[in-house]
Amino acid sequence: MHGFTDVDRQSNPDSWVGVLDRLTQEPFYQAYQQRVRELLQPVPGRRYVDVGAGTGASAATLKDDHGASVATVDSSLTMAAATRARGVTQCTVADAHHLPFLDNSFDGAWADRTLQHLADPQAAIKELIRV
Ligand SMILES: C[S@@+](CC[C@H](N)C(=O)[O-])C[C@H]1O[C@@H](n2cnc3c(N)ncnc32)[C@H](O)[C@@H]1O
After folding, report:
1. What pLDDT shows up at residue 1?
2. C or N: which end of the chain has fewer Cβ atoms within 10 Å?
3. Are the C-beta atoms of residues 10 and 76 closer than 8 Å to each other?
4. Is any atom of ligand 1 closer than 6 Å to the C-beta of 91?
5. At what angle do helices 77-85 and 13-24 cross, to 10 degrees?
6. Cβ pair 70, 63 in contact under 8 A
7. CA of 5 to the centre of ligand 1 (A)
């Protein structure tokens, strides 16, 4: 099992926060994240959700730079705590296969580097579209 499949059960869960923080410094990562934000076409006040949000760095940028309302979902309590520390308060600890939101709750949704860690990526994609 990959560490990102179940962060909280790893011997040092916080070290996986560090892994994501280091990757965030990479120019390639920053460039494609910028492209993701362009594709979302964020509008101030509209609602977006980042599924498998990790540290919440991407969600925080969308919220802070675009004035959007951003929620996150991650299965890890460790990652949710890191996300709250970045000022994203709408953090839900949940499974991407079963998002705890009503249909059409959001104006946009994304999942970055998360689907490869899921048992059923297609089910998670259906959930992203549904909410
Ligand atoms: C490689 S990290 C990517 C984090 C972030 N999207 C990024 O690009 O920096 C994968 C994330 O998916 C989360 N994850 C793994 N399985 C999950 C599941 N079934 N439901 C929700 N999140 C899950 C992990 O806890 C981890 O934070």
Report:
1. 78
2. N
3. no
4. no
5. 50
6. yes
7. 7
Please give the class, per CATH, of domain 10-130: alpha beta
SS (H, E, C) 11-45: CCHHHHHHHHHHHHCCHHHHHHHHHHHHHHCCCCC
127 closest CA partner among 109, 119, 83: 109
80 lines ligand 1 (CB under 6 A): no
State which amino acid sits at residue 110. W
CA 8 to each of CA 13, 16, 80, 99, 126: distance values in angstroms, whole numbers, following the listed order? 5, 9, 11, 19, 26
Q: Kindly state if the Cβ of 7 falls inside 6 Å of ligand 1.
A: yes
Q: How would you classify residue 90: left for phi > 0, otherwise alpha for psi between -120 and 50, otherwise beta?
A: beta
> Distance, CA 114 to ligand 1 centroid (Å)?
5
Residue-range domain boundaries for the chain? 10-130
Burial bucket for residue 14 (CB in 10 Å: 0-12, 13-18, 19+): exposed
Question: How far does the centroid of ligand 1 lie from the alpha carbon of residue 117, in Å?
Answer: 7
